[in-house]
Amino acid sequence: MMDLLKDKSSRKQVTLDVSHIQDSKELHSLLKKELDLPDFYGMNWDAFWDAITGLVELPEILIFEGWDHIERKLPEDSQTLMNILKDFNEQYPLWKCQVIYK
């Protein structure tokens, strides 16, 4: 497991294009694919928190392209995602992930 985490953590930067996301399911699918979340990922925000705090290592830099689209299309999900990543950085400063919303 630690070898797996080491391999994934070597990724310094991940960019997610969210400019065409239409619903919460698509957003979770993109997060699962691009952040290498496990096959059993529950596709909800509790599962996302569990995954980033115990199953995968976030990249040093996480960029969301097209963020204004997500804020308009999925205001609750976008706010929840921002809050989760903010909480993650506050609670796990040694694993801090710089998040850029473009």
From TrEMBL:
Residue ranges occupied by any Barstar (barnase inhibitor) domain in the UniProt entry: 12-92
InterPro entries cross-referenced by the UniProt entry: Barstar, Barstar-like_sf
Pfam families: Barstar
Similarity comment: Belongs to the barstar family.
Official protein name in the record: Barstar (barnase inhibitor) domain-containing protein
Source taxonomy: Bacteria, Bacillati, Bacillota, Bacilli, Bacillales
